[in-house]
């Protein structure tokens, strides 16, 4: 497997006449955590959604440039978007478990993809909940509503639901912004565990979080990627003055 799982080049994205992303070039390493930082409205989440074509769902969006996943451009007309989103899954800002049991939340994806064996589903549910470091907390209440769990547990159910369809890349759009500090720590610890098996891209407003969880950091501003590199270098020796100004709190 190549060092870079995703290679983005000359990426531009337009919402009708408005250009939201401008000439983005970026490589995303395999089994690494890449953090996207920058002020609100700078293009971080828009960029994240280009990686599994979630922006396709928005009317009037136009994308130019290339996004290669394992060497294949995901914007080619022959790409099956459903199978792409199975390979490149997404966790959203607010936990969004389905109004059903913990078990049925996690089994949902495999069932959609045709899995009917109860033995196999039991195995997938346990493995995925263990993968999300949640099994010990919920094994006694698998058949109760996921909505009865705490916010942090609900977010980990959403991560388990994602793991159940065996993705390769995990996209996380501010996965802890709606959580308390204790739940945030658990999700950060989980990200550290998951990167052994997955390539992870996380959008965060919290620069301390980016410094804690990521190997690479990219700084976005006004639709441009100003700077990208090893997280320690970005935070201690940024090349661009705008990066330094943002990191030291002069704006943002």
Provide structural commentary:
It is a single chain. The chain is an alpha/beta fold and about 250 residues long. It has a single domain (about 5-245), classed as P-loop containing nucleotide triphosphate hydrolases (Rossmann fold, 3-Layer(aba) Sandwich), CATH 3.40.50.300. Helices cover about 35% and strands about 25% of the residues. It has ten helices and ten strands. It has helices at about 45-50, 80-85, 100-110, 120-130, 135-140, 150-165, 180-195, 205-215, 230-235, 240-245, and strands spanning about 5-15, 20-30, 35, 60-70, 70-75, 90, 170-175, 200-205, 215-220, 225-230. The strands form two sheets. The protein has a six-stranded mixed beta sheet, with helices on both faces. Helix 3 packs across helix 4 (about 120-130). The radius of gyration is 18 Å and the shape is globular.
How does CATH name the architecture?
3-Layer(aba) Sandwich
Please trace the helix and strand order, writing H or E for each element.
Answer: EEEHEEHEHHHHEHEHEEHH
Unreliable stretches (pLDDT < 50, length at least 5) are none
**CATH homologous superfamily (4th level) name:** P-loop containing nucleotide triphosphate hydrolases
Q: Describe the global form.
A: globular
The separation of the N and C termini measures 38 Å
Provide the number of structural domains: 1
Structural class of the secondary structure composition?
Answer: alpha/beta
What value does the average pLDDT take?
Answer: 95
Strand content: 25-35%
Helix content: 25-40%
**Helix segment tally:** 10
